[in-house]
## 1
Amino acid sequence: MRTPMSSVRGLGAAHTGTKDFWHQRITSVAGIPLCIAAIVIVIGLLGRSHAAVVQILGSPIVAIIMLLFIINTVYHMWIGMQEIIIDYVHEDKLKLATLLGNTFFCFAIALASAFAILKLSFGV
Amino acid sequence: MTELEAGSTTGSRRARPLSPHLQVYKLMLTFVMSGFHRISGAALYFGMLLIAWWLIAAASGPNAYANFEWFMGSLIGRLVLFGYTWALLHHLLGGVRHLLWDLGLGFEPTEREFLALATIVGSISLTLIIWVIGYLAMGGPR
């Protein structure tokens, strides 16, 4: 006999309920200067040749700013999309699939972008 | 998987009264801007594919970069980039508005309305300004 009480016992507060909220605020504050910097970098690279773009994107300051922008933005958008999924997707299996998909997408974007920046910086 | 299925097997799901949803509220600017914030965030989520493509293309070589430049230079590419610029600035300004609220500022009726208006007017103006700067940086429209 499985009562409603027994199914929720031990599944109480995990004491991390405000973690995503707080991390979303941290990444949003950090995102303000990083977005402005990224916009400035993109405008500075408009219309330049591939060789010039490689040289500028690979220079330490620009590469570090872009890496910070990518990591900060991807973490921010991972939390944001998770929030949207939790709000609108109520069917258990679909929710599980979309939450997994969100994590996979974010990891792939972050890793691919970071790899590209590092490759531009270190050559090869 | 037992946790996931627990709700449906215990029969604890009854029809419960629902709170009123979107349709019963008067359409207000603050409410529309709240929706825009979420929609622009979701758009930017997929827009990161463009950033990743740009960086990977630059790292891959001149041919890959030329393909990226060709797409972004096309009409569709420019439309997407214009929409991306606006979504980014709207989400940025909307985020500042949310941070002000987190600090307990800007909750008075006139302040709320002003912030909502400033978000939309500011994001559209900044988008146009950035595109003008962008075209000037490229030496005029092509």
## 2
Amino acid sequence: MEPVRIIEGAVSVLDRNDVDTDQIIPKQFLKRVERTGFGEFLFYDWAKQPGWDLPSNPILAAGRNFGCGSSREHAPWALEDYGFRAIVAPSFADIFYSNCTKIGLLPVVLPEPEVRELMAARHARIDLEEQEISFAGRQVQFDIDAEIARRLLEGLDDIGVTLRQQEAIDRYERDRERGGPVTTRL
Amino acid sequence: MPKSLFDKIWEAHEVAESLLYVDLHLVHEVTSPQAFESLRLAGRKVRRTDRTLATADHNVPTDGSSAAAHIRDRLSRVQVETLERNCREFGVPVYSIGSERQGIVHVIGPELGVTQPGMTIVCGDSHTSTHGAFGALAFGIGTSEVEHVLATQTLQQRKPRSLRIRYEGELGHGVTAKDLILGTIGRIGVDGGVGHVIEYAGPPIERLSMEGRMTVCNMTIEGGGRAGMIAPDDATFAWVEGRPAAPDPLPLDEWSALRTDDGASFDREVVIDASELSPQVTWGTTPGMVVDVTGAVPDPDGEGDERALEYMALVPGTAMQEIPLDRVFIGSCTNSRIGDLREAAEVVRGRSVASSVNAMVVPGSQQVKAQAESEGLDQVFRDAGFDWRSAGCSMCLGMNPDIAAPGERVASTSNRNFEGRQGRGARSHLVSPKMAAAAAIEGHFVDIRDWEG
């Protein structure tokens, strides 16, 4: 994963609440076995509707509960492939939020009035290290889990990080594992 | 200090701070190919093939095809064949098309007894919350996390907050687990559970069958919850006992001790009077846009509602029972188990599907299908004019040939009424199996409580 530090540029606006991952990337595009090439199918059905305007910019500002529904990581893949580097919203669905952080697409939670102002500002600069977003001449702080921020800033591979704790995993399995189902003996 | 069911399972699985051990990893064809590919590129193996189980469900045609090679859609075929190849290469057990154990991943886990109390269970699918019905901590993950679990059998997780939803009173006659969870989502909102693991508790939950509990936990994600759980009890133990992967004897002392202790604290608590709930029908494009079957399409409250009304082609004030239907779908990981099919069959028996309606029943697994057929339920449905299909996700999400046409209005026992979910332009109304069955007969929704057929 590429390190994430400063994201700056124009802001695309999707002023809707509860945008679900079925809209972000409809099911017919989940049949691909690759990780790339989803950007052209982003918001496939909505993009055909009159008045749709979602240019490819570094920052997307959206409504509450963004990314609800299915766990498909194809949704962050599509957003990232389309060109977004950060999504700013009043809240995110849990799995979507986690999926974004795994691929270096920065989710930023701001109070709803701030998101409204960002939507109006149309240009912003996000500094992950300072946990600060600047727009319309103001600086607004945002919260992010320290561990998630560290991984994004350093561009760490999660599996590589966990494998450093391999001994702890081995020990856990030796000491604490219960009987449990054995799928290979069914 | 008194602990909750969630606390106990979390603590028992912390390998290190924020590193959670995974007891069971369920895998399906849609969210796993990129994970296996990355493992291959990094030269990594699956750490615990004996704690991993795969099946094909999302892409599977429900026409009874017996091999992946028979899938006509090329991309679907490649995806299922890729799953089979990956599982062979990495040594993961798989029940693919043609296996008598194939089925929707959240149906076969409990059915095989691999879903057990006290476990941590993950799958690259948001409806993994289903397994929480057994007193397990179960939740959906994305493909990067699927790869992480395959490689390490752990997940990096901060402990979510906790929410207990306690039900009082009693569910009325004809009001089911599906109505209970739809009514709950209507009250807490589609983001009401975000960041929380939800424990469902109280006498109405204890009285539910295991199938009903799975329906409730299944739709936790539609209320934004990270996971849904129900304390294991005698009903749970009776379900697990004797299944292929069940321990013999059952560790009843250990499992009984999982229950939330008296005085355990939760970050939030919600109380709902179950006796206030009626059969529910969704009118809009999120599961939270829901009303009593006796109600009407509401006036829009905001731009989201207006867009939903337009998409659903509904006018505020229209009685829900006057909305004509084109299709009925009984199936999905929410409502395709034998108990669901028995309930629907009871409604259908001796009656006929309305001539304007195309109705189908899709059992959740090959085992459910076989059981239903041994009870003659397939004949009950067929005699009434239902299409009796083979196991898979089917029209819940339209990744296979079961798709509703643009503009078609569907009464569906599935979990999501999102725009385009069941087919581009299709209009979905979520209901219980009984309500779907009665709607198929009448061609519109009816109040199952006073319906005489």
